[in-house]
Amino acid sequence: MEEIARSKAELRKQYLTLRKQLADKFRKDQAIFQNLIGWEGYRKAPWLLLYLSTEEEVDTTRILEEALSQGKAVYAPVCRAEEEGKMDFYRVRSSGLL
After folding, report:
1. 89, β-bridge pairs
2. 29: how many CB neighbours lie within 10 A of its CB?
3. Residues 88, 92, 98, CA angle at the centre, nearest 5°?
4. What is the pLDDT of residues 19-66, one digit of tens each?
5. What contacts 26, CB < 8 A, 6 or more positions away?
6. What whole-number distance in Å separates Cα of residue 10 and Cα of residue 28?
7. 10 Å Cβ neighbour count for 60?
8. What is this structure's pTM?
9. Are strands 73-79 and 47-49 parallel, antiparallel or unpaired?
10. Closest Cα partner for 92 from 49, 53, 55?
11. Residue 70 DSSP symbol
12. CA separation, residue 67 to residues 34, 43, 62, 95 (Å)
């Protein structure tokens, strides 16, 4: 289990480095947004599991707002402090307090 966690951490670090090197973050975030909302699986989904992004990650704010405006139920993960590797999902009803 520790090996998997270590491998995942290494991958995250590598992808974060690559992500930071991208020239035009806004353009790339926009392309990801357009691809997602154009995907049939997204269009048909009544709900969405979505992480709440940090500055280094793909910006999910626009995805969140679009999904909410379409009446989709959106859920975001929250890691359990008392149980490493465990998380719960909570419904996000607005992007206003994020």
Report:
1. 77
2. 19
3. 105
4. 776 667 888 899 999 999 999 999 999 999 999 999 888 899 999 999
5. none
6. 23
7. 23
8. 0.71
9. parallel
10. 49
11. T
12. 13, 9, 8, 11
